[in-house]
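This part of the workshop introduces the protein records we will be handling. As an example, a complete record with its sequence and its C-alpha cells follows.
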Amino acid sequence: MLKQTRNKIGGIAVMVAALLVAVTGTVGAQDTADLPTNTITVTGVGEAFGSPDIAYLNLGVQTSNEDVVVAFNEANEKVAQLIEALKEFGIAERDLQTTGLYMYTDPFDPTTGQPRETPIYRVTNSLSITVRDVSQVGEVVSVGVNNGANSIDGLTFGLADPATIEQAARADAVENARARARQLAELTGKTLGDPIIVTETFGNAIPFASNFDRAQSGGGAAPIEQGQLSVSVNVQVTFSVS
C-alpha cells in the first residue's frame, strides 16, 4: 500500500507500511506493484445518516384444522379480508405481494408429545407490504391485526432514493482518506500531493432493526420507532508525495 524509492526512504519503508496498515485497518485492493513510485495509498471511511422514507412489512395468516380443506379455505378467506382492508386503508395493489403459502401436517399433540389420533393441518399465507408513508407503519400493523393477521415478521425501513445521503458519506470518506494520507506523509517526511487514483471499494445503506410492541385490538396504532439509517462508503485513494 505504500511504495517509496529505496534511496529516498531507506530503512523506514517497513515502518511506514506497518503504519499504513494500522491506519487503514486493511490492505488495499490495488496491487502495490502496479502503483507508481512516490505514492501513498489509504482507505477512507465515510458515514452519513438520514431518516427512512419507506418501510417493508410482512403480515401473515396462520390457520389450523383437522380438515385440510377447512384450514386452507379459512386461510384464504382471512387473507382476502386482510388484503381488502389494507386497500381500503390506502395501500396500493402494486405494494401488496404474496410471499409465502405453506401447508403442513402436525401429527403430535403439544401437551403430551404423543401422536394424535387425527393430525392437524396448518396453513400459513404471508403478505409483503410496502408502506410509502413511514408515519403510517403502526396503523398498517394495526389494520392487519384487526383484520385477520396473526403473524408479523420482517419490519424494515429503507431509503427510496439513497443518492443524497450516499453523496454526503462519499465526501466524508474522501476527506477521511486525505487526513490519513497527510498524517502518513508527515510521519515519513514527505509532502502530500494530489490524488492520482480513486476507487470506491464499498458503499451500503444499513437499516437498523426496528422493534414494535404488539398491536392493540380496538383500532389503536402499534407504536413504531423509525430510527435512522446509516449509509457508509469506503474509498481507496492513492496520493502522490514528494
In short: Helices lie at 6-9, 13-24, 68-89, 137-145, 163-187.
